[in-house]
Amino acid sequence: MFTATYEEAANINNWVQGVRSAAPDAHLLVVDDSSPDGTGDILDALAEGDAALTVVHRPGKSGLASAHLEAMRYALDNDYEVLVTMDADGSHLPEQVPSLVQALPGHDFVIGTRYRGGRHKAGLFRRTLSAGANGLSRLVLPTGLSEYTTSFRAFDRQSLNELVHADFTSGGYAFFVECIEILHQAGLSITETPIDFVDRMHGSSKIPKGQVFMSVMALGSMGWRRMRRMSSGNDRTERAAREPYGRIDFQRDRNCACKYGSSMLLGSFVAMASR
Ligand SMILES: Nc1nc2c(ncn2[C@@H]2O[C@H](COP(=O)(O)OP(=O)(O)O)[C@@H](O)[C@H]2O)c(=O)[nH]1
Ligand SMILES: [Mg+2]
Fold first, then answer.
1. Nearest partner of 112 among 160, 144, 151, judged by Cα
2. Are 131 and 84 in contact (CB under 8 A)?
3. Structural domain span for residue 64
4. What's the whole-model pTM score?
5. What total of structural domains would you count in the chain?
6. Which residue puts its alpha carbon closest to atom 25 of ligand 1?
7. Which ligand is nearest to the CA of 205?
8. Using CB atoms within 10 A of its CB, is residue 221 exposed (0-12), middle (13-18) or buried (19+)?
9. I need a labelling partner for 251 at 20 to 30 A (CA). Which of 79, 142, 165, 173 fits?
């Protein structure tokens, strides 16, 4: 089980306790970026004498994407069969970890979805941004999934191997979309399972708001690359459309993207203006 932390002192105890009761046999890894609020010290105290909790301290805030890649490398290097990733702020519910893990056999990757059978219970601004980002992702990079952005995920070793050797072009939120695009293009089996997403327990978002706008740009460039692959006959979209799970409703996705895409663009400008 992995989470990244930056200023989660008020949430980290709950995360450790929650994950421990949901998955008692799991080993826990936390990458903390020298949080000024002392999250790293709390973790060190919890890890003392606890061989199943590993804390990696990085010297400064280095972003979520590199923290997740570090966890993937760690899982491979230490021979773990399954890696589950999630946020530490209470938005992802530890009690739903087992349903991700149970969905993995037969697949290489599982993402928790807030859309197809799942619930998004956060505030309106957040729901609009997420719906816009996911609607656009479905349109631009169809894979059959309804969720692309949340970090509540389970990986087998094959998908970890693919990702640690990939050339990522994006950071921030777009990193999470690019992971899915890489696994899809590699022909791995990707699926989703419903989750409930709630507002963070304490504190506020640590992701710079401008990243939302950057992510829209990154999505555009991934879409462009996908189109080039399609024109060279080297894309897996068609295959996904034929697979029972991955059947894509292009009309629905187009409607969804139009409905939310414009509000997301507007939202990203508002977010940038309010930085
Ligand atoms: N190590 C590390 N963790 C981060 C960084 N930015 C965010 N996080 C953690 O990543 C998770 C998601 O971040 P959050 O601020 O809730 O993002 P949001 O939910 O998209 O608003 C939380 O557990 C954060 O503490 C970072 O730069 N480094
Ligand atoms: Mg959050």
1. 151
2. no
3. 2-273
4. 0.87
5. 1
6. 5
7. 1
8. middle
9. 173
